[in-house]
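Can anyone check this?
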Amino acid sequence: MVPQEGDKPTQHILDRPMQRDTLQVVLPKARIDIFSQRSLFQKEWRREFPKEVTQIEGLYIELDRLQDLLKRAKAKKYASPFFPIQQQSLIKHFFSFDLFPKEKMSQKLAPFSKEFREFIRLQLMSWGSLYPEHFATPLAAHVLFDDEDELNPNVGLEKLEKEVSNEFLRWGGKIEEIDQVREIERKWREGLTVSLEGDPKVFRSEFLILNSPLHRISSLLDKKRKGVLKKIKPRNVMIPLFLGIHEKVIPVGMKDLVISILDLEKPYHDGNVLFLSLSPKGDETKAPEGRRALTVESLMDPAKWGQSPLADHQKGVMDHLHYLFPFLEEHIELVDFEWASEQVPKWSYSHFLYEAASDFDWRKGVAPMRVSKNIYLVGKENFPYLGLEGEILSGLMVSQQILKKYS
């Protein structure tokens, strides 16, 4: 059972595979297109960071070397089927030798300008849902340059979801769409029971698979696993704004996926950092002819949700958008902030950016897949730094753990 509340037919920018050829990072004094073809990308950063060319070339050479080491590790005969996640017995882990450096990417970037550091940081954040302060350098290499394992952007995610659902049902599983969980209890003879808010219906199951933020299911964690809440916590909640705009308002050269920061000296909150996703041009399944659907996601401190009017936050977002889109107010068809108001307080709302309170072994994960007896967690918290790839890996590994009980 995977609760999904208030589904919106627009994909979250951090939930989908990043097409690097269409990603653009906008800094206060630079606009860089991210090309997977290195020669094109090199022209971009040579133009925008001319004083750091030698340093940047050295950094990318080092990241390429680490990426080659990862590829060799993947090619080994006994490599984990869930690469880059490493599955080892305690004995093998004790005697294994780690070829990868322990140096953090933040240390690696220390000699660079603030603009270039922010450029890398925003890319790492856009791939996953984790602030990159504790990113090991090999992890950064994997996130920035692993084109080989990138999901095909043309894959039919709806078709894949349907096939997975059909297989789940074939094995005797049951899928229910629910609004809000009131309580989850463990009963000796009946297994796990789930009761709903405002609904007399009760669900019973031997296993429960949750796709929900870890901090919102803390009451379900057993004593052994409660410590993980000190290891990873939500630093920001992603607030989506949906706009309908005319084609002619889009600046020449703007890409379909954009990360923008207005002021390097200010916090990311209240519209200073935006993640933007434009629907494909001419795709009338997304927006009427001559229009583009624009999803804009901004950041807010979770503790401040409900303490200040959303209108104040919206003003900061709109000010940033007017900077990116000249004369925007003349070309808006719709503005929808209401969906966010309704969905953010719900326990299954999963659009958060997390921070790790300490170092973590990135090839093991951050949060446990099993949070209590027969209760499993899938979603971003297991491997947040891998984005959609991490969500898929967590689902596959949970499936493997459950199937082992029947084999």
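Reply from J.R.: I decoded it. The first strand starts at residue 23 and ends at 27.
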